[in-house]
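>> received
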Amino acid sequence: MSYSMLEEKLKMLPEECLDEVSQYVEFILFRQEHKSRKKLSDLNEFFGSAKSLPDGLDLQRRSRDEWV
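>> returned
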């Protein structure tokens, strides 16, 4: 689906649904960011790099999401 088609579908939604759509888009972005970080950490294992420390903001997000 192209961006223009998606935009047209979003315009047809009632205002009440915009918050839900926004939250879902944020979730997709978070998931993509998490996947890209995981790929980087997987590469470290192959090259014998030192173990990377967890990101402080990621730890904060995970602890916050446990209570939602």
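>> Helices lie at 3-12, 18-47, 56-66.
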